[in-house]
């Protein structure tokens, strides 16, 4: 089975399938390899949104916006639907102090040219009538999208499969091969050897293990998030809604939060799905490589959600699932060539932004592998931040 | 399981998934219950696969010639049956 390809992509989640698709679009032949099925890991155990309202002003939101623009193009470009809807998102503040912080954030976003608006409690209730009465206000961002992440993965694959893309699922990479000059020349798997001059590591929470084959330091860790699914419901939530506290837990430390939020690191976000359920998050906890969800965190999420949407109290929960987010301490993914190993690229460590940054990540990797200048400045995402660091460097 | 199901037979009543759709998912690479679920939504509805899982397993055995212990099962998840968010969030230890 030693067929030669231009590129081998390891990992068939949201990031890997986007990279594979965009590489094929550049005219390269690609082998997409995954130890399980397409979208079987984090990309089917996450929520379903591409937001601007969870990004920081600057390069973070710029890349997020570029990605949303590309999602809108992909909706036309891909034959299979991935349920993209640009419905906007609502961020709800719980206290006047949060409203003040939120207003600063909105001002910074508006200054960068993004459509963000502050809402008072009445404007907010018009958008979401079932919100609790005592909430003082929030803000609205019109560009935010919802989509089905696993349908997106399948849409990428189905579009180019057999037309430059070969997919090898249930195939585990066991080593990365180097030639006598130290450049990439292929991979070994439990199903045989694959030959290629370029390898892209899109293995998400497992990308550190892939880097281990080359002795490269890559400190990615699984940070686990639990999401609750309601039974089918008449519309009680009309767009992505998140509490402002979520941004605080994502970007800041040391800010006084609700005790429940602090103890279980839980914040409320909720969104309607294509199946007429709502999905409700969420949590961020370091509990290692596991699919088992902690009942206390599940209960804290339910409690927190009822605080914002009291109507949920009498609605049914049918399932709670947990996904592993590829966390990096810098809160920045790596989208980069690796200078130490010619032909080796990394697109991993997106934590909760793997879906939001999915299209732009694939596009950037295809540009890097093709030897082109990336269409965005991505120096912040360079692997060089780990140069000389780590036990193996 | 000698009998071969018709393509238009309903497998998952909650999400209205047919035998034909499950076979199509398998043709596209699905190898176990969760692969099929991701591609068809079979098992994602109110009953969470309690009715359809055995049927999906049977179709996997028929189509792929798998032994019974290789068709997989849906990941066990809390809650075991539908429960209100109010009950879930009730008396948590703060």
Written description of the protein model:
The complex is a heterodimer of chains A (393) and B (94). By secondary structure, chain A is of the alpha/beta class. Chain A folds into two domains: 168 residues, FAD/NAD(P)-binding domain; 161 residues, 2-Layer Sandwich (D-Amino Acid Oxidase, Chain A, domain 2). Chain A is built from ten helices and 18 strands. In chain A, strands 1, 2, 8, 9, 10, 11, 17 and 18 form an eight-stranded mixed β-sheet that branches. An eight-stranded mixed β-sheet of chain A has the order 5-6-4-13-14-15-12-16. In chain A, helix 1 crosses helix 10. The radius of gyration of chain A is 21 Å and the shape is globular. Chain B has a single domain, classed as Arc Repressor Mutant, subunit A (Orthogonal Bundle), CATH 1.10.10.1100. Chain B has four helices and three strands. Chain B has a two-stranded antiparallel sheet with strand order 1-2. Chain B is elongated, with a radius of gyration of 15 Å. The mean pLDDT of chain B is 89. Classes of the chains: A alpha/beta (393), B mainly alpha (94). At the A-B interface, helix 5, helix 8, helix 9 and strand 16 of A face helix 2, strand 3 and helix 4 of B.
Q: Could you name the key traits of this structure?
A:
heterodimer; A: 393 residues; alpha/beta; FAD/NAD(P)-binding domain; D-Amino Acid Oxidase, Chain A, domain 2; eight-stranded mixed sheet; 10 helices; B: 94 residues; mainly alpha; two-stranded antiparallel ribbon
CATH superfamily of chain B: BFD-like [2Fe-2S]-binding domain
Number of domain units of chain A: 2
Coarse structural class of chain B: mainly alpha
Major β-sheet annotation of chain A: 8 strands, mixed
Amount of beta strand of chain A: 25-35%
The chain-level structural class of chain A is alpha/beta
Q: In the residues of chain B, how many domains can be counted? A: 1
Averaged pLDDT of chain B, please? 89
Distance between the termini of chain A: 34 Å
Unreliable runs of chain A: none
Oligomer: heterodimer
What is the molecular shape of chain A? globular
């Amino acid at each position: 089975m030693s067929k030669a390809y231009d590129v081998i992509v390891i990992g068939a989640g949201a990031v890997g399938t986007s990279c594979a698709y965009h590489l094929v679009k550049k005219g390269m032949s690609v082998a997409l390899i995954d130890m399980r099925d397409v979208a079987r890991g984090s990309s089917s155990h996450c929520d379903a949104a591409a937001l601007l309202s969870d990004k920081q002003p600057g390069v973070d939101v710029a890349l997020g916006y570029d990605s949303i623009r590309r999602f809108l193009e992909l909706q036309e470009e891909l034959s299979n639907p991935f349920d993209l809807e640009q419905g906007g998102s609502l961020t709800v503040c719980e206290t006047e102090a949060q409203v003040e912080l939120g207003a600063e954030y909105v001002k910074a976003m508006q200054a960068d040219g993004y459509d963000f608006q502050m809402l008072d409690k009445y404007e907010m209730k018009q958008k979401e009538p079932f919100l609790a009465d005592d909430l003082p206000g929030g803000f609205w961002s019109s560009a935010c999208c919802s989509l089905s992440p696993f349908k997106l993965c399948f849409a990428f694959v189905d579009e180019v499969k057999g037309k430059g893309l070969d997919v090898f699922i249930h195939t585990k990479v066991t080593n990365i091969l180097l030639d006598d000059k130290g450049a990439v020349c292929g991979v070994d798997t439990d199903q045989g050897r694959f030959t290629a001059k370029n390898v892209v590591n899109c293995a998400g929470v497992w990308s550190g293990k892939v880097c281990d084959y080359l002795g490269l330091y890559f400190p990615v860790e699984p940070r686990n998030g639990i999401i609750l699914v309601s039974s089918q419901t008449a519309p009680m939530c009309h767009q992505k809604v998140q509490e402002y506290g979520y941004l605080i837990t994502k970007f800041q430390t040391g800010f006084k939060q609700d005790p429940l939020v602090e103890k279980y690191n839980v914040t409320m976000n909720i969104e309607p799905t294509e199946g007429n359920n709502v999905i409700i998050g969420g949590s961020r906890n370091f509990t290692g490589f596991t699919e088992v969800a902690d009942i206390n965190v599940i209960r804290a999420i339910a409690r927190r959600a009822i605080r914002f949407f009291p109507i949920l109290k009498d609605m049914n929960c049918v399932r709670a699932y947990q996904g592993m987010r590829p966390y990096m301490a810098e809160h920045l993914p790596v989208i980069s060539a690796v200078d130490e190993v010619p032909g080796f690229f990394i697109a991993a460590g997106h934590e909760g932004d793997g879906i939001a940054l999915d299209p732009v990540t694939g596009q950037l990797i295809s540009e890097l592998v093709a030897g082109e200048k990336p269409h965005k400045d991505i120096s912040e995402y360079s692997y060089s931040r780990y140069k000389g660091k780590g036990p193996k460097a | 399981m000698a009998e071969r199901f018709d393509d238009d037979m309903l497998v998952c009543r909650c999400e209205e998934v047919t035998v034909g759709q499950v076979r199509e998912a398998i043709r596209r690479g699905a190898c176990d219950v969760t692969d099929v679920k991701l591609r068809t939504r079979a098992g994602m509805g109110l009953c969470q696969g309690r009715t359809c899982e055995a049927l999906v397993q049977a179709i996997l055995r028929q189509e792929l010639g798998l032994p019974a212990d290789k068709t997989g099962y849906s990941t066990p998840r809390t809650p075991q049956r539908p429960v209100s968010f109010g009950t879930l969030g009730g008396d948590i230890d703060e």
